[in-house]
Design goal:
mainly alpha; Alpha-lytic protease prodomain-like; 7 helices; about 0% strand; disordered C terminus
Length: about 220
């Protein structure tokens, strides 16, 4: 199992680096070209760098802890705790997108379409590469790798809906399609993050064993 975790640790490290580099590049170009879209996406990437960085850190801690004799706890819980925290970030993140989208609905901003679409495509490419890196077998997966994977997928989803929304808005000149697209993708992300919080929360509360027995009739 530990070899599996080391593999995940390396993968999350690469994704953190990739996302961080993209973030820095986008922020620099955003400032130099005065592009709000690039700047916003760069900052937005930053929140994913933090979350996936947390997952990476969790693997490092587990690796250190499993070597230490003093630690008597269940080191896998560290991964669930990290996954839980990451899921919480994802949830907050989706709520923020909804709030921003609703605000934009009331105060439409002038969108530089071609530039915004270009930025969204860069974001999408980075996320697709990251998703391939973080792809994991479900049997071996832990909440930590799942959380990192969901952050990447969430980002890919927002990039994809942004591209579709912007293209539609540009072609038919309906700026609010972009807003609706953002809200739809946020709702999907909310659903994912709540699923992650439930699953990782169960591990943290040692509920797994009791839960399996009556999970069929019991709907919470």
């Amino acid at each position: 199992m530990s070899e599996q975790k080391n593999k995940y640790e390396n993968k999350t490290m690469w994704v953190v680096l990739l996302t961080a580099i993209t973030m820095v590049v986008e922020i620099i170009f955003g400032l130099t070209t005065k592009s709000m879209a690039l700047l916003a996406d760069g900052i937005h990437m930053g929140s994913h760098v933090l979350a996936i960085g947390l997952s990476w850190l969790a693997y490092i801690i587990v690796r250190r802890v499993s070597k230490s004799e003093k630690f008597k706890g269940n080191s896998d819980k560290i991964l669930s705790l990290s996954g839980y925290s990451s899921g919480l970030m994802l949830l907050i993140f989706a709520v923020v997108i909804v709030i921003e989208a609703v605000e934009r609905f009331y105060n439409p901003v002038e969108i530089v379409y071609k530039e915004a679409i270009f930025v969204a495509i860069i974001g999408l490419i980075v996320n697709i590469v990251s998703a391939f890196l973080l792809h994991h077998d479900h049997e071996h997966s832990d909440h930590n790798i799942r959380a990192a994977y969901l952050h990447v997928l969430a980002d890919a989803l927002t990039s994809l809906t942004a591209i579709l929304g912007l293209v539609a808005a540009m072609i038919w000149d309906i700026p609010f399609i972009d807003t609706i697209a953002a809200i739809v993708s946020s709702l999907v992300i909310v659903k994912w993050s709540i699923g992650l919080l439930k699953d990782s929360g169960k591990v943290l509360l040692d509920m797994e064993h009791k839960d399996r027995a009556h999970s069929h009739g019991h709907h919470h």
